[in-house]
## 1
Amino acid sequence: MSEKGRSSLLIVLSGPSGVGKDAVIQRLKASAFPLHYTVTVTTRPRRPNEVHGVDYFFTGEADFDAMLARDELLESALVHGHKYGTPRQQVREALAAHKDVLLKIDVQGATQVRHKVPEAVSIFLAPANLDELVRRLRSRGSESAAELALRLHNAEGELEDLPNYDYVVLNEQDRLQETVDQVKAIITAEHCRVRQRRIVV
């Protein structure tokens, strides 16, 4: 999407756990939509289907804290008992290569990015309703009952942050392609702005 002579975008895709952020990104990748997808660092244990360096960079608490102390993370957050962060250098290199950068981060991280990079484009991915979110989380089967309860509790608070975003996209059941098309349309429209966003990371 981004070309030399045109400003690159920093796009934040955020929303509650289980809303379908990964599914949207997988569909964007499958359509060859030109974006750089950042890989988040986390202390969360790796799930069976996840690949280190592709889905996340899995690391220990000490290494994560060292990255934080060296100011190597653009944003970081404690989410559901685990630490997550976005490597700053990864974002800088992609922007320098004239690529649009997509950050898949939680609401805490999105708040930090908005403060540090006010010109970032923020998109809140929302469920049609909480009942649907509950069903999605339960169908994943990757969390214990306690973890599931925590994620649902956090989701209620995260939904209250929606008014702070530039855009909201509903990810309704069985309408994933519509959701993806809306995200693409937002990015395309942002590149048509008369006053282009200037991203400084």
## 2
Amino acid sequence: MSSTSYPQNAQDWRGRFIANLAAALARRSDIRLSLWAPPGELADQISSATSPADALWLEDLAQNGGIAQQLRSRKVWALGTVISLLVRLGRGYRAQSSDVVHVNWLQNALPLWGTHTPALITVLGTDFALLRLPGMRALLRAVLRQRRAILAPNAEWMQPLLKQAFGDLAEIRPIEFGVDQLWFELERQPLAERARHWLAVTRLTKNKVGDLFTWGEGLFGPERQLHLFGPMQEQLQLPAWVHYHGPTHPTELLNQWFPQACGLITLSRHDEGRPQVILEAMAAGLPILASDLPAHRDMLQHRQTAWLAASRSDVRKGLEWLEDPQRNVAVGQAARQQIKATVGTWDDCAGRYAAAYQDLLEPRS
């Protein structure tokens, strides 16, 4: 498995889903997993495929915000970083004798060129920005022609777009990520008459924040508070009524913030896949107020498991609707049941990936 993001420790927010997925795969008796990724705490059953030199290089890249941040901030100057990443990752692929390679993010599949190992490629929403670059589809098609491959978006809304671009060369099979069992076990506190806390958990970029500040103006204040969590990846001016806490991690959200909150709010305009924090909030029984994006419509049912908003007026109505104590509980429980039935835990997710690996190894009919 390859990934350019991985948490250093339990308090690190970066690449948390990769750590959860890798640990679940490694718990299976039918998989022996090697991981090429930035340095971090690995489950006992996982062997590191990262050379010491690559580990140091990836650690420095992570400290500087990762490859996406490099491209946003340095643009042309980031080209050297991109080339170095592809060269190092290519060496990593060739150093391993694998039955299947599991690639996270489409760009990390490019160094597979010249090899023939079957590949499962997890596709995230951010990959669609990559596909808009000139020549990128042609490069990826050249890589796919050399092997059996499954493109596995983590949300079904991406399937038609990927079929159009690559369906003649690879199977397109949506595979949902899982949720840690602890989220399903969380017990929320009844909504109090005191200040109502709404949470926004996101990387702070213009598109990820979206309309939160403009539509939230006048709707939040001392009695209805907005608590914002996440790393500042673009310099944004935060309104005075926003309570900004900086980066967070799952344990803090699980133990301190999710139990007492009214709900999670996201008004993103970003190329979303299936945001993990939304899955975790739903598993915890926490209602969601979200922008009306394809990714959100794919996982949320308006007025049943969430409230979808396309305007400031929609946000105001959604806040009032979800702050009714009985409705808040009912919507949260409906969301939890949906995630239990359709997504499940990380072990369930690992089973879906293991089935895909096996299919890649079956003889062609």
## 3
Amino acid sequence: MSMVRNLQYLYSAGVIATDGTIGRVLDFLFDDRSWTIRYLVVDVRTWMVRHDVVIPIEAIHELDWEKKNFHVRLTRVQVRESPDLDARRPVSRQQEMAVRNFYGWPKYWHDMEIDLPVRGKYDFPAAAGDDPHLRSTEAIAGYGVLEGNRELGHVESFVMDDSSWHIGYLGVRTGSWLDQHSILVPTPWVKSISWSGCRVSLHDTYKHHLASAK
């Protein structure tokens, strides 16, 4: 039975390979068009020179929620030799292909019917020919949330379905410092994300949705 869970609970969770401990979860990368988590970002500095690596969600064999441990179907050698990837910036399709080819995992986008966003709808600092679409939850936490020209608050958390790894809601902190509270904003209400502007903009129908929910 699936449950909704706050993704922040899994930061610092342990990651264990078939032959020993790899490290701890630093971050998650998600597809900003389907809002599906695709990769773990794992800190491996205790036994590798590199600071972090990315591991596909498909590699997870078991997730122990009580002990906060990910068990993955990978060896430490596979992790050590995996391609470099800067998880702090939006990730291009070309970079993702290198990672998935290395691990031998299928390219999930072959069977997806997703229209690419019009350039400008999503603000990507990328070179021509790139197709950035993966984003860091850690980076987006703290982004301002805009309703038209009004700042509603800022992103503080992500709520996902633990069976599909789909992010269904953004936890948004609203109000002044004297009267702060949190609300859940469904991800389909997100109109655009600006990496350079550090903001998430909501569709104009946001107010209508709120009124209907009351």
